Amino acid sequence: MVNEREWIDEAWSDITNKILRTSKKIGANFPHASVGGEYEFAAPHWWTAGFWPGQLWLIYRDSKEESLRKIAEECEEQLDNVITDYYRLDHDIGFMWTLTSIARYKLLGDEDSKRRGLLAANLLMARFNVNGNYIRAWNPWFEGDENRGYAIIDCAMNLSILFWASEQTGDPRFKSVAMKHADTILEHFIEADGSVHHIVNFNPETGERIEFIGGQGYASDSAWTRGTAWAIYGLTICYEYTGEDKYLQTAKNVAHFFIANLPEDYVPHWDFRIPEDVTSYRDSSAGAIAAPGLLLLAEKVPQKEAHIYKNAGEKILQSLYENYGAWDNPNEDGVILHGTGHYPEQKNLNNPLIYGDYFFVEGIARLKGYTDLFWQK
After folding, report:
1. Is 349 left (phi over 0), alpha (psi -120 to 50) or beta?
2. How far is CA 352 from CA 239, 311, 356, in A?
């Protein structure tokens, strides 16, 4: 096994070479899941639209490869037709425009991208339900669908666009909404042992909590691993922007639960509480999301604690690189194998997933020393 510095540099080189190759095939499209070795493309309004251009910006920052910049900008411009689509925009606005417009603004100072990011933040803030102090998740999926009271743990990551907008404009409303939603996460989503609920359903008129819903986890009282990862990273970002210790302590609690339940190779199964008779697919995307969150958490805690989170984050990324990477397969578009998209609906099981790819690349970028990442201050 190579030493730490060597494997990180080797991983970054493999990532760069792979994305330079696949970018010629994928172009300015929006990959979601790789099926049979080829990424299937989603519509620009789909929640994963930011992750491919986000990868391109990560590699562009290091390589200055102009072809990657052009593709990322073309992806961003396609989202202009989405930003006015009231019926399809939802809580994932943050995922979509943080990794396109805010990334471009941070790297290149583009004012049009800043404007897009601020408009997206306004639209996300408009989904805030003042009765229950939560950002509403989806719109109705079909006529008669009642989900006005749904909030989901994934939105913890989307809060960063609100914090960013507050700092850019000097307007405290964005930060206030983000913190109120974060406080709702602490009160309703996180259990004492650090496990996390995917969906919480509130009465949209009174704000009263009605129920927990399993969502993409096995059950309402299980522990969906990707949701646990969203909580680690999202709450750590909340701490970075606010300095509120309650977010840091909860992120640590969730991180301890996550780390304690990892299997021997440090890449989690799709739920931490799967009955023995249910297929225990790995979810490489959950590990990939958690890893940069753990690395950021290590930067925020006292030095005597930092090794707990830093070691776990590095071991996850090294295992993903050595055991789950698709480096030697020219017939596979994905970067990281063995993701689980949505087990209850039997969708994208054991597939590369674009968000797993993105967060893996981001994690390696952080180990390379690129600490100014798109979610952060």
Report:
1. beta
2. 31, 25, 7
Please indicate, yes or no, if residue 244 is contained in any of the structural domains: yes
User: Which pLDDT does position 1 carry in this prediction?
Assistant: 46
| Any domain includes 280 | yes
75-90, pLDDT tens digit by residue? 999 999 999 888 889 9
Q: Which residues pair with 150 in a beta bridge?
A: 201
- Is 375 within a domain? no
Catalytic residues: 92, 154
Q: Give the global pTM.
A: 0.98
Find the mean pLDDT for residues 336-362: 98
Cα angle 116-120-121, degrees, rounded to a multiple of 5: 120
Average pLDDT, stretch 131-150?
95
CATH of the domain at 318: 1.50.10.10
Name the domain count of the chain. Answer: 1
> What is the domain extent for residue 338?
4-368
Q: CB of 72 within 8 A of CB of 59?
A: no
Across 23-36, average pLDDT: 98
Is residue 374 in some structural domain?
no
The CB density around residue 62, as the number of other CB atoms within 10 Å, is 13
Residues 6+ apart with CB under 8 A from 230: 153, 154, 156, 157, 196, 289
pLDDT at residue 156 greater than cutoff 60: yes
**Residue 155 near residue 167 (C-beta atoms within 8 A):** no
Is residue 62 within 8 A of residue 370, CB to CB? The reply is yes
